[in-house]
Each structure stands twice: as structure tokens, then as C-alpha cells.
Amino acid sequence: MPTEASKTDDLGAWTEKILPTDLAGIRESERDLLARLAAVGYDEDHRFAVRLAFEEAMVNAMKHGNKMDPSRSVTLSYRVSPERVEIRVADEGPGFDPGGVPDPTADENLNKPCGRGIMLMRCYMDEVAYSSSGKEVRMVKYRQP
Amino acid sequence: MKIQTRSDGGIQIVTVIGSADVSASAALREAFLGAIQVGTTRIVCDLGQTDFICSDTLGVLITAYLKATKRGGFLKLANPQQHLKEVLETTRLNCLFSVYPDVSCALADS
B83 contacts in A (CB within 8 Å)? Predict the structure, then answer.
């Protein structure tokens, strides 16, 4: 069962959830996050970008981090303010080097079915940073006019 | 997400309605790869009513494209709306797939 908590600092309230490794479980958190974005007026372009990056981060954590091991969890944290949305996703896998992921837009990689998630996160969010262990990603999207 | 299929002049038209997210990838895989497996290798994917796509479902389209072309067929994309068009451009998959403004254009070029 997912667990949920909330804590606040000077940039707003964090919602934190510990989710089982189950792709079907992504949807509920995604709906909540998108509803919060809509509630404070983020437009469709911003909501599409955040949805895409969120889904890529969660799928990466479950598939590549936790290797779909149901005994492992994903820790999801997010907070939404009228100015920005910040998302953190941490898995329980061995970690990885994001710099070692091949460029999926290179001609020789275009026909590979995998490997586009991190690139999409970087393109659609304003900030994407991995922890030194490679187990946690932090993403920020600023609301722009 | 819903998938509708129809045939036009021997070409299978697969219309994807709604969000092609990770929860939809299994159904999409079955629709495309199932068709190819029974010899339907000339396919147009109508994205006009698709409001979301992720890397997982892009991977399904790429796998189907490779299998179809290997068997002498094709997988063309038609009518992607603005957000999907941007994803295809960002990933440079518009260089891999033939992308048409609508299904009629895709059929006419087949």
C-alpha cells in the first residue's frame, strides 16, 4: 500500500509518497499532480511537459532502478506553487551514471526502442539533476507566461 | 486509451484515442505486433486523437516500424497534434518515421 505524508518549508508543502513498484500505481499520483497544476493555473503546455517528465522518471525508477522488483519501493515527492513545480523520484536500485546513457537522437540510435526517457525529462523540464548515487532525480519546471 | 482499426485498400489504419502512456503500451504492442504477425505489414497510425505519448509507447511504435519494414511493409504516422509533433521532433523520430498531416496523405503516398 502506498503511504503518503506532507511537510512544509519556505517554498511550500511537499507531498511525499512511498509507492510499490507497480506501473499501474503511477496514474493516481499523476492525476493528483496534474490537478494541482491546473488548480493554480498552469497551462496545457506546462501540464503536458510535467506529465511527460513525471511519467519518464517514474517508469525509469521502477523499470531500470528497481528492475520491477515488487519488494522495492519508489519514493515520490512533489510540491506545486504558482511559480514552479518540483518533483523528486528515488528508487532502491543500484544507481547509475546518467552521463553514460547514449544520445538517443544520434543517427545510429534512432531505431532503438529504448533510451529516450532521460532526454525527454531534460528537454521538457527546466532543471533535471541526479544525486551522486544516481538513485534519485530532482526536476523543476518554472511557470512562464 | 482506445484503439480502433480499419482497413483501406489493404492498408491497416490504427487510430489511437486518448493517452498513449505506459499503461497503454501493452495494448498498443498487441495491436501493432499482432497485426504484423498475421501478415498485415502496411500500417498507418492515426494520432489525430492521441493527446499524450511517452518513451515507452514510442518504443512500441519503433519496434512495430522495424518489424513491418523488415517484412517489406511500412508504419507511417498521420495527424500528430502539436504536443506529439514536438515530441517526435525533440526525439528526432520524425527522421525515422514518415509523418503526414492526415491519414489521406499517408494513404496517397503508399
Answer: 45, 48
B21 vs A24: CB contact, 8 Å cut-off?
Answer: no
Tell me what ipTM this predicted complex has. Answer: 0.94
Whole-model pTM? 0.93
Q: What is the pLDDT of residues B56-83, one digit of tens each?
A: 999 999 999 999 999 999 999 999 999 9
Which residues on chain B are in Cβ contact (under 8 Å) with A48? 52, 83
Which residues of chain A are within 8 Å of residue B90 when distances are taken between CB atoms?
A: 119-120, 123-124
Question: CA of B55 to nearest chain A CA: how many angstroms apart?
Answer: 6
The CATH superfamily label for domain B2-108 reads: STAS domain (3.30.750.24)
Pairing of strands A3-9, B2-8: unpaired
**Using CB atoms and an 8 Å cut-off, which of residues 26-85 of chain A contact chain B?**
26-27, 45, 48, 51-52, 55-56, 59
Domains of chain A plus CATH, in order, are: 3-142 (3.30.565.10)
